Amino acid sequence: MKRNYHIRENGVVEIFDDFDLQKIADSGQCFRWKSLESGGYQIIHQGHFLIVEQIDEQMYRFHCTKNEFLEIWKEYLDLEENYRAIRQRINKDEDLFLYTASQKEAGIRMLRQDLWEILISFIISQNRSIPLIKKSIEILAEKAGERKIAPGGQVYYSFPTPKAICDMEQESLDSCKLGYRAKYVKAVSQSVLEGEIDLSALNNAGEEEARKELMGLYGVGRKVADCVILYGLYQKDAFPIDVWMKKILSREYPDGYSLDRYRPYNGVYQQYMFAYYRWLSANQNLGL
DNA sequence: TGCCAGGCCGAAA
DNA sequence: TTTCGGCATGGC
């Protein structure tokens, strides 16, 4: 099978499949992408630091070694998956809304993010807007993450470990502006640190089993669990329903939305609809 | 000022 | 089993 990418000289990678940095950054699945004045993005993932920028239609410059690209970023960006093929499974006549969403939001990919970071990030996400989620996570990383220096001299912070969060002073935790979620973050950190739950074991669990385990954690309900399964366990059929998806399902699918039609990629389609509906809303094209 | 944000917990029915 | 009030905080 033909590869989705081709590595050229000097960190340049040609990407043939769906790939849009801005759409990924704005898709609400990741909270530590930072847009740069150059038009590129700064990404922190499992202690690694990357700057990536688009230099031509399908050409991207990755500011890292070829080995780092192959061992870290290729997998993180899910470059082995063919998103164009996933979009082409949608039947335009059967589902115009999903089809339109997938056309408009083509370029989104499901990042293979760190399981622990996703768990805490989505606990923090509850009942908050995305900019505020990013702010809290940024402060949390600065307060309890490991300070590092990128090859280009940029200072950055890794996502804090369970122990680092458990060790935080109350004052320091309060400065993260987590509100009532602070007690959830602390409790889950303790559960993981003390071995009450084995997160790595979830990689071998089915969707149902993983959901049950996750929902046993203090502060993790159905929606956060589904986000963890989708973004942290890479089970692309998980279908998180938040306030936006509730609006979409009630307005666009009053007779019900079939999860059986497009298995096993419901989570990807959810991502297109989520992003598209938020775009519509922001552009006042709905008369909401 | 009031309402909302990638919801969850605990109590009441 | 479902429903509902309360919850921290900031942006609009």
Level of helix content? 40-55%
Round the mean pLDDT to the nearest integer and report it: 96
- The backbone outline, from C-alpha atoms, is globular
The beta-strand count equals: 8
Pairing-aware structural class of the strands and helices?
alpha+beta
* Integer-rounded radius of gyration: 19 Å
Largest sheet: 6 strands, antiparallel
Give, in spatial order, the strands making up the sheet with the most strands.
1-2-6-5-4-3
Explain this structure:
This protein is α+β, with helices and mostly antiparallel strands and 288 residues long. The protein has helices spanning 21-25, 66-76, 83-88, 96-104, 115-125, 130-144, 162-166, 170-174, 182-193, 207-215, 222-232, 243-252, 266-282; strands at residues 5-7, 12-15, 33-35, 41-45, 48-54, 59-62, 147-149, 155-157. Strands 1-2-6-5-4-3 form a six-stranded antiparallel sheet. It has a two-stranded antiparallel sheet with strand order 7-8. A hairpin with a 5-residue loop joins strand 3 and strand 4. Helix 4 crosses helix 13 (266-282), helix 5 (115-125) packs antiparallel against helix 11 and helix 10 (207-215) crosses helix 11. The termini are far apart. The chain binds a DNA duplex (13 and 12 nucleotides) through residues 28-29, 122-123, 125-133, 135-136, 177-182, 184, 218-224, 227, 240-245, 274, 278.
